[in-house]
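Input sequence (357 aa), recorded before submission:
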Amino acid sequence: MTSPSHPPSSDRSHSAATAGSHGDELLDAPDVEDDDELVAGPGAAPPAALRILLREQDAGERLDRVLAEHGDMPFSRSVIQRLIAEGRVTLDGKPVDRKTLAAPLGVVLLRPAPPPPMEALPEDLPLRVLFEDEHLIVIDKAAGMVVHPAPGHPTGTLVNALLHHAQLHPSLREGHARPGIVHRLDKDTSGVMVAAKTPEGHEGLVRLFQTHTIERRYVAIAVGPHLRTQTFDTLHGRHPHDRKRFSSTVNKGKPAITHAALTERLHGGALMTLTLETGRTHQIRVHLSDAGTPVLADPLYGKKSRDPRLQRAEAAIGRQALHAELLGFVHPITGEPVRFEAPPPADFQAALAELRG
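Predicted structure, C-alpha cell format:
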C-alpha cells in the first residue's frame, strides 16, 4: 500500500537508511549477501583497490596470513593467494609473492579482478507489486528469491522478474546484471524493496539512501530469555574465524546501529520491531545473535533449539524469521512522501502462531 505521509523523521531513533562506505555496501566490492545494502548502479567503476595498513606486530609474519586475518578483509586466504599469484597485490608499491613477509606499518593494496560480464534476461516469475509509476517500482519480495544474478544464481532472481514485468529504461537494461536495483535483501529475508525504472529514478533513490532519508522497519522473531528494547551501536566487520559470517564484536570495522523494540513476548523469545540507521551486511541478524538472542531459524547465526515448540516454529518457517515490513521516503521525482507496507507472509505468521499463548 502507498499513502501520503510526513517525510521520514530526522530523529535518529525513528529513521532507517543505508549509506555506503565503499566495500561493505557497494556491489563493486566482493559480492556477499546482506540484509539491505546500497548497490552500485549502471556504469559503476571497476572494483577499486582495497587498502590495508599493516600493524607493527605484523612484521615478519607471512603477508597472506596477516591479510586473511585482518578485520577489514573481505577475501579468504585462498583468494588472497590467488590475487598475489596474479600480481594484484603490492606492499609499499612493490609486487609481492607467496613468501613475502609483512612489513611494520606497511601499506598493502589489493586490486580485485573485475567480475565477468553477466547480463540478466527477462523471466516470467511471480512478482507482488505494491506500487509502480514511470520511475519506480516497489515490490514485496518473497523469501527464497535472490535479488540479482550472481555465480550460483544466474536466473530466477528479482532482476529477471523485473525485466519481464517493468518497462525499464534502455540505459538501465542493457549490459547490466542488476538493472534498477539500488538496495537488496537476503535471499531468505522477505519484504518491501524499491527499484528504479529510469536513470532519474535511480539517481534519486541512491541519493535518498546516501543521505539517510529512507525509513525502513523490519520485524523478526528472536529467540532467548533476555530480549528487551535497546539500541545496538557497534562496529561491524568480518568474523575473524568464519569468512561467511560477520561480527559486532570486532576491534575494527564500520559503525552499525540498530534500534530494537520488544513488541510481543512469545514462548522462548519475542517478536521484535527493528529500524536501521546503517545497512551493514547481515546487520540485524548479527546484532541479535551477538546479544545471545538470534533470529529464529537463522541457519548462519542461530542454533537449533531443543524446545519442541521452537522446533515446530522453525519447521513452520524454514528460514530466518526476518521480514522488511515498511519502506518510507520522499518520491525522488514527484516530491510526494510515500510509505509502503507489507505484512509478514504466511510462513512467518505460522511460526508466530506456534509461539503465542
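Checked by second reader. Confidence is low (pLDDT under 50) at residues 1-36, 41-46.
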